[in-house]
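1st attempt posting a full record on here, be nice pls
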Amino acid sequence: MEDWIEVERFEAMEDKLHEEMHRLGELAMDLALNPGAVIKAVEDDKGFAILVHKVFYKSFT
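the predicted structure (as tokens):
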């Protein structure tokens, strides 16, 4: 899990989560990265989190 960084959290699977996943996916493609390999949403007891791979995170910070 150390290769992944939480960038946003949502209480439920909602439109805002999907919109943010889409936005990050577009950014990944602009950087010639595979969105499926560098972005993921995970569910835990606190809701849903968007995680990005540290390689992707470093490219836009």
